[in-house]
Amino acid sequence: MHALASGKGWQASDVVCTAGVADRPFEEEHRNFCVAVVTNGTFRYRARQGTAMLTPGAILLGNPGTCYECGHEHGAGDRCISYHFSPAYMEQVVADTPGAKKLAFETARLPPLPALARLLAEAEAAREMADIEAFEELGLRIAGAAVASGMTPAARSPSRRDQKRVAEAVRRIEKDAVRPVSLAELASETATSPYHFLRSFRHVAGMTPYQFVLKTRLHRAAVRL
Question: Does 88 reside within a domain?
Fold first, then answer.
């Protein structure tokens, strides 16, 4: 397991499993919420929520304090981008997700879904490019997708206050796009949670804060040419 990035209440790791057909599954325990994106291989995952076969594009879901086993009867070399979130972190994500009420995953996995394909591709690209800045935002988006799995809440327009917050953040980024800035820092400056700020920013700006930073940098680089 290789640590990719971490912050308050979250950690992202690149997990490559070397267990194979001859290795017997053994019981482990989730210490925090686990949301793991499968990028290579297949394996069987058994947890309190049920048993599921994980394939590339699927998302493994784990609740803190619960035991689980992974079986590799189909071969070795499984690889995941694994996020671990503290209960307090996930509680805020649930609070900021329309329609979400329960702080616990009821299913063992999310199957590969076309709606999540682009998000998962971004996560894999960030891993391959060692793009540390991207993992905080990607983690929130993946956590939000996991919490909202199976839900289709009605779209809600950001309030005027949220629109103002996003406008201020846009100006801040445009003023100094070269300096690295975290999602947590932007949210703190607007007195909102990171997940709430991310959702509001995407709705208003049509892209995430990190995507806006990259767009601004690329635009200025093109202008200088």
Answer: yes
